[in-house]
Design brief:
This protein has eleven helices and twelve strands. It is α+β, with helices and mostly antiparallel strands. The structure holds coenzyme A (COA). Coenzyme A binds next to strand 2, strand 5 and strand 8.
């Protein structure tokens, strides 16, 4: 409740409505707002075709962090780099949003081999591939943000920072925009907020269609800086907003952090469902049982509907060295690609229709995945609304001997089909909680609710 209070006070100070903040641009429904276009740096340069490709950016990045391009199972000793780490944030110069701003192109129009990797069977673009690029591009922005005077004293040494994906906070796709595999895609963005070791980035994706850049999606990531041995947090430079617009972006970053705390605090694993949710679960129970016979078991599944468990599909992937990131762990973008492709398949199998992704939210990377691990993924449709499906995908590392699972990520995807899909229903209390969690995520991303947890509507009823 305290976090919620803080959130609301901050929001009030910013002059936000309960539906969010609308600043010179794009208003996300729900808690999260992303400024669509900022006037950072040179606006003309921002609108131009980027001068480097994503591949060029990855090569620079690899060089900057001193990663080897060939795999070896032996771990590199990075202890020497510890001396480069600052002891406090005051040792580091402050940075601006323009310092990290950058853009890169995915040259689909000219690179035929690349096009083959991105194209879908029906001549769309594989969103999983795009997620990989967004992840690595956002990490690159974080490295551009960090400026460490101690590094200048040791130009021969690579960056001491290991910057890992902590979460993909939010990604919303523009309605009706279909990516074309024959045209170039531009990724651009900057650091939008910083804590002590955490860094939020905003990344925009546009495609060159009919001679103009058309907005496709915007995503918000949070990265966490770690020491060279990946044993603890590492301090990064403070971000200082300069213009009024930058201040709004930064303040939104503060709100995003508070709203992430609300999601944690109000999780169904910590608190029971709210009153509306309890009633909803009870109504579902009554509609599917036989009260006259005192039959508690769910006997009467409405025609055309499915139990949540019936929608589950699974995949186990061996994580090979080719899937590693620059620090020898499995690349977060690869896990995201595998997760979205499985989720899309579960939406396809459930609905019988080829669906489009409309939102991704609250994707937390709880622990690193080691190369050589078995990555176990399962996806299921947990909530439906007309033609929309909320798909929850879990990724875990599986111990091949004991087959025990250690959770690494949970993904929340919202897909849209062309026509109404079969409703899904919970059969057990556990599934009812999945259903409510799916409903909360769905209502958040579609703007039907303001807060993740205890509050049902956008109005401030219960506080
Ligand atoms: C992200 C990770 C390092 C966080 O570890 P942790 O022990 O919880 O971190 P700490 O408690 O020391 O917190 C450090 C900072 O990260 C922030 N943080 C931690 N987890 C976070 C998350 N999931 N999302 C956003 N911020 C997060 C904290 O708020 C804190 O910020 P601050 O220093 O600015 O105040 C850890 O969960 C991890 O290794 N996850 C896997 C990362 C990964 O493999 N990604 C894919 C490959 S790059």
């Amino acid at each position: 409740m305290r976090v919620r209070y803080l959130f609301k006070s901050f929001q009030a100070a910013l002059g936000c409505t309960t539906r969010g903040l609308s600043v010179n641009g794009f208003l996300f429904p729900g808690n999260h707002v992303i400024i669509q276009r900022s006037s950072l740096g040179d606006a003309a340069a921002q609108n131009a075709m980027p001068t480097k490709t994503v591949r060029d950016m990855v090569d620079k990045f690899t060089c900057m962090v001193g990663a080897s391009s060939t795999y070896s199972a032996a771990t590199v000793d990075r202890t020497e780099l510890l001396k480069l780490l600052p002891k406090s944030q005051d040792e580091l110069p402050t940075r601006t949003m323009s310092d990290s701003w950058d853009s890169a192109v995915i040259p689909l129009s000219t690179n035929k081999c690349l096009r083959e990797k991105y194209i879908t069977f029906n001549e769309g673009v594989r969103i999983g591939r795009l997620l990989e690029d967004l992840d690595v591009f956002s990490a690159w922005l974080c490295y551009r943000h960090v400026h460490n005077p101690r590094q200048a004293e040791h130009p021969d040494l690579p960056s001491p920072y290991i910057i890992v994906t902590g979460m993909m906070d939010r990604m919303d796709f523009c309605k009706g925009v279909k990516l074309d595999p024959n045209h170039d895609i531009r990724i651009s963005g900057h650091v939008s907020w910083t804590g002590t070791s955490s860094i939020e980035t905003i990344v925009h994706v546009d495609q060159l269609q009919d001679g103009a850049w058309k907005k496709v999606t915007t995503a918000v990531f949070v990265f966490v800086a770690r020491d060279p041995l990946n044993q603890g947090a590492a301090i990064i430079n403070k971000l200082v907003p300069n213009t009024e617009e930058e201040k709004k972006i930064f303040e939104q970053g503060v709100l995003n952090k508070l709203s992430r705390k609300i999601v944690k605090e109000e999780s169904l694993f910590k608190q029971p469902p709210n009153e509306t949710e309890k009633n909803l679960v009870h109504e579902l129970f009554l509609s599917m049982s036989n009260p006259k016979q005192h039959e508690f078991a769910p006997k009467r599944k409405p025609q055309g509907s499915r139990w949540i468990s019936e929608t589950k599909i699974k995949n186990i992937i061996m994580c090979h060295p080719e899937h590693r990131n620059r620090f020898g762990k499995v690349f977060g973008g690869f896990i995201m690609r595998k997760a979205i492709e499985l989720a899309w398949t579960s939406a396809l199998v459930h609905s019988g229709q080829r669906c489009t992704i409309s939102h991704i939210d609250d994707v937390v990377f709880t622990r690193p995945v080691e190369v050589g691990s078995l990555l176990y993924l399962n996806a299921q449709v947990v909530y439906t609304d007309g033609e929309h499906m909320q798909v929850s995908t879990k990724a875990s590392m599986m111990d091949p001997v004991t087959q025990t699972l250690s959770l690494t990520n949970i993904f929340h995807f919202t897909f849209a089909a062309d026509s109404a899909v079969p409703p899904v229903l919970p059969c057990t209390y556990h599934e009812a909680m999945m259903y409510l969690d799916g409903r909360r995520h769905y209502q958040l991303v579609t703007g039907e609710r303001r807060y993740y947890g205890q509050q049902e509507s956008n109005e401030d009823r219960h506080d």
